[in-house]
DNA sequence: CTGAAAGCGCTTACAG
DNA sequence: CTGAAAGCGCTTACAG
């Protein structure tokens, strides 16, 4: 110790051992809650740990034991609402389980670049959670080498995942189905759809749900418009739709797209919901405060993140029964932006 | 190798050494770009690395060398725009420097809980970036033990930081001053202010800038209203202000607060900007797409995150000259939500 | 230019 | 119940 009270080098189990008058193996037993330690010995060790301010070196633990109590999240984005909320859920659950969480952004969706990022993520040790909502993420999930513990956060898959590589998802099909049904029930002849950027699969679950609702109602199925993740994409898609006077209802892949659509409709003089109804996905924090407030489908991304970590935790700890982590069902939230079409008024 | 082509245990430097017919120290020299290795030897080692798919074990590297090429970000939040953008900037810069980034959320601002989180963050090894925009963050920054490399992302400080514990910040005072001046120049008699949650200092820089602009103009200085980080706080503060017919200009601590204020004014029948002007801070992605589009002050949080990492990198690598990382100056962006007050029309 | 030794701070068998 | 040994995969001096 120097005069400031800080040890130059943190105390190791050997320091604790000599302070407590035991061998360092005994210290190891105490900090690992090994049963076969005499209570008196344990007390002495605990006291030495306290006075020396000992903290077990996580790096040495990882090297010696071969496990690292860490998750790395691989994602193409950290700021869009869905991604950010998933990350929040993962961090929450990881912290509760005393896991460290790392984050690595996939800047490119170029296959070799993605593969390199996956390798670097694996270098951290521990498990992986890959957010596979976009081409980069989908590629990353596919590029994870066998034997590496990984959970994918995916769009609703066409077929269930393999047992050792679990996935989590929200019920995208049901979400889109509900939202479309809501708009049709208001009297709209059809519902136009602006998508978030698609991952690899042409028949995304949301598109399916939307199409199914239209088909069941005998409504025409317009061609979906490709949007982006942010308001700008909704704005430009909205300008296109605004030129078509037959458009009376627009479903948007997320609330930020919807925000852009609202703006585009405003600028082109189409009133919402009087002339056009708009609905989104997510129920992001701002959805309720827009004017008009936004009809949307609430998706529990934070819960999804928690579930992803719980699954990963299960495979890492090889617990027999992985606790089923239900992700809440998408819930339609009707607000001001949806109403009957002009013809019905 | 088994039939699937995956080694059970990853190749170590000893495996590479025996494959290349050299000692493992030589392998260590090659992977560390040590100059004194004969080119022919280097080639053989490189070839063995390639064929065995060797990757240096980061954990062992950290344990043996005592440095870990990692940053842990300590923050009370990961989803609000400013926090998320800072995190994005840190990750970007860290990835470019081949650093791993960890994230740990401060759920409580209770002093012992914060101290515990700081200790756990330190356990990861490497450096720390603490986002000190709120009580939890401010406490965390103060609780970082001496000797641990740390950079604080802070509100504009009253006095400059110590040399070995650098801070970064945006010019909050100038930002608030500019926004307030803009509103006064439009003819408003005064500007009401809704704050984001204050950290410890009563006289936050933004409040100072706002007050200074008012005082210089000889305007009355109303009592600031306490908001939150999200739209809900802006909404309730906005309802209060809407009851006062003398309120014609409102400055909001961030764009999400402004969104809530817009909603409150709409619900109470006060038109923006005809009756009341509203301005925010941040220029978040949605600000330009709101109706009315939002006058705001653009703050470069991503650049701030990059700068924070650059500073940390400097102290970790003990480079003599820490590259000055300029954070761009706040920039007023005038949009539809601000105009002359009703009296002047 | 290259190799043999010691050690980073732990854990995991193996003794007693 | 407790201790002595070997080892996790590297790096850092120290030899030659």
TrEMBL record, chains A, B:
Residue stretches making up the HTH lacI-type domain: 11-65
Coiled-coil intervals, chain numbering: none
Keywords: DNA-binding, Transcription, Transcription regulation
UniProt cross-references to InterPro entries, sorted A to Z: HTH_LacI, LacI/GalR-like_sensor, Lambda_DNA-bd_dom_sf, Peripla_BP_I
Alphabetized GO MF terms: DNA-binding transcription factor activity; transcription cis-regulatory region binding
Tree of life domain: Bacteria
Protein name according to UniProt: LacI family DNA-binding transcriptional regulator
Native organism: Streptomyces roseirectus
